[in-house]
TrEMBL record:
<comment type="similarity">
    <text>Belongs to the cutinase family.</text>
</comment>
<keyword id="KW-1015">Disulfide bond</keyword>
<dbReference type="InterPro" id="IPR000675">
    <property type="entry name" value="Cutinase/axe"/>
</dbReference>
<dbReference type="Pfam" id="PF01083">
    <property type="entry name" value="Cutinase"/>
</dbReference>
<keyword id="KW-0719">Serine esterase</keyword>
<dbReference type="GO" id="GO:0052689">
    <property type="term" value="F:carboxylic ester hydrolase activity"/>
</dbReference>
<protein>
    <submittedName>
        <fullName>Cutinase family protein</fullName>
    </submittedName>
</protein>
<feature type="signal peptide">
    <location>
        <begin position="1"/>
        <end position="16"/>
    </location>
</feature>
<keyword id="KW-0732">Signal</keyword>
<keyword id="KW-0378">Hydrolase</keyword>
<dbReference type="InterPro" id="IPR029058">
    <property type="entry name" value="AB_hydrolase_fold"/>
</dbReference>
Length: 237
């Protein structure tokens, strides 16, 4: 799977609204209370818990598109990691990341124990992608339970990582993330999808003088669909 690229040609970044959703038909093989697919979403820094079911706009739209793509597998359930995420100091940012990691670890362990047959997809945007990458790199046993990891606009992006890179407008940026390359994901790298739009100053540091692209480009439904399609393709194996 190394070096594969999913391509989407976009003429512009058009913003549009849609609601997050879970879809699918329950499977007879699913244990009571379990879904066939568990989508775990982690929002970006400063995004409100009260909006988009705690997922943030970007993760909400990607997870909704992915739920539609995977509906034939059975019930798809989407859960937000409701960690603290403010716009404070650097120390507060790091504390929010630690909170997210703790909550993600607890949730994934619970799903793996209670619903061992569920397909688990973790989707993180911006700070959320940092939370996911750092926690899953630190705990390979936990990472084995994750069937697909989706990193969007990651500040710890490493363009040389052997991920499924979603090629959006402008191609796959060559620059690393603003906080430098993240930790090695081991075997999970082969099940990881990464999306970074050219000009995103967070996941491709130095490519833009401001964060406008980072804050809005991934809200585009076509971008969300392309990322979801890449994740569904990896899940299908």
């Amino acid at each position: 799977m190394l070096g594969r690229t999913v391509v989407l040609a976009l003429a512009c970044f058009a913003l549009a609204g849609c609601d997050a959703a879970s879809s699918g038909t329950p499977s007879e093989a699913e244990p009571s209370g379990c879904a066939a697919v568990e989508i775990v979403g982690i929002r970006g820094q400063g995004q409100f818990l009260e909006a988009n079911d705690g997922l943030g706009t970007e993760v909400s739209r990607i997870s909704a598109a992915l739920a539609d793509d995977l509906a034939s597998l059975g019930t798809v359930r989407t859960t937000a990691i409701r960690h603290a995420s403010g716009l404070g100091s650097w120390d507060e940012y790091l504390e929010d990341v630690r909170d997210g990691r703790d909550r993600l670890r607890t949730h994934l362990r619970s799903v793996a124990a209670d619903c061992p047959d569920a397909k688990i997809t973790v989707i993180g945007f911006s700070q959320g992608s940092q939370v996911a990458r750092q926690e899953l790199a630190a705990d390979p046993r936990l990472a084995r339970h994750v069937d697909v990891l989706v990193l969007v606009g990651s500040p710890v992006r490493d363009p040389s990582s052997p991920f499924e890179h979603v090629e959006l407008t402008g191609g796959v940026p060559a620059e690393a993330g603003r906080l430098g390359p993240g930790p090695d994901l081991g075997e999970l790298a082969e099940r990881t999808v990464e999306a970074c739009i050219a000009g995103d100053a967070v996941c491709a540091a130095g490519s833009s003088p401001d964060d406008t692209i980072h804050r809005h480009a991934y809200e585009d439904p076509d971008v969300a669909q392309a990322i979801a399609y890449a994740a569904a393709t990896v899940l299908a194996g």
